[in-house]
Amino acid sequence: xxxxxSPTSSLTVETIRSVVEAMPMQGRIMLRLILLQxxxxxxxxxxxxxxxxxDPRCVAGTKPTNTTMTKESIKVVTxxxxxxxxxxRLKRERTWLQCESLRSLAQxxxxxxxxxxxxxxxxxxxxxxxxxxxxxxxRTVLPKPAIRLLEQRWEADEITADDYQQQRLSIELQTQLRxxxxxxxxxxxxxxxxxxxxxxxxxxxxxxxxxxxxASSLAARKMxxxxxxxxxxxxxxxxxxxxxxxxxxxLWKETFSVLAMQPIERSHSTFDGxxxxxxxxxxxxxxxxxxxxxxxVEVKFWTSLVFGASSNAxxxxxxxxxxxxxxxxxxxxxxxxxxxxxxxxxxxRTAATPKVEVGALDAPAETPVKELSEMQAxxxxxxxxxxxxxxxxxxx
Length: 396
Hints:
single chain; about 400 residues; mainly alpha
């Protein structure tokens, strides 16, 4: 569901940039603000915005023509530009990281399920009908009660180690299938959110907050320069000698589709306190990638990864970053996905816990009495008021 430009379109990123650059200063700023997740507002354009903003102290009468720019006003506009630019680009990067991670996780769970099915078929000689029945009931099975019952039977010596591993591997197969389906469902939702994120322009109230102009003036300028941009883009495409096909019908929608194909610039993230320590976070991410994280824990953990370390975190927070999702993609890329490694992990995970034989434990050894050193004995005698020979000392 990833957005791509239509195959018959001759619109390119270079064409869009050239049309925007050819517009007058005011129109160029308007287009750059609308497409802020793909374009940057330069320092020269920020100075124009500062000079163009009306003085809020003058609400009536003749407006002053010679506006004075201060460092404070320039900093205010720059900070607002940086705030909204970071907000929209973080959302674009987050949705992309979500889609990439979920796609890899779904493939991993399917690969683990495939290896588990192969082990059950080749090592434990399960029939194809039995495996199909396990596959069909994967969505409704409850793993915890089944594992608990299996553990009780193993402790009561009702089943052998091979039978235990065969049944435990069957439960693991169903768990991997269920997680794969869950990741595919999440991926569909993430793709929709990504589609919405990459096609969303900066809102009017956000542009007005950066520029500091009234809503009526903003609406008039936006209509004027959007029309000018689309007409110039249409003219450029029609007169382009390299254009071998017809122009797209919706140039505005096609603009977002073409710009979204550009590589995503990764943001710089620092550890934000998720799971308290970075080592604990990496351990939990590794368990999630290998599929050994319990399902009820995985749901909460994924929500924390997507929405930040705090349950009240919002996408517009300045302190928000994507440290967890970035580390998840790193763990996924560094994972050894060879069949031998996957088989070894599945067999180790489903092996029965060794039993301790009766009488195998030796009696606990007595703790040896530690002799006091000469210095320790002297200190102890001094505390009791005795000399080195143990007789009462007249010094006390």
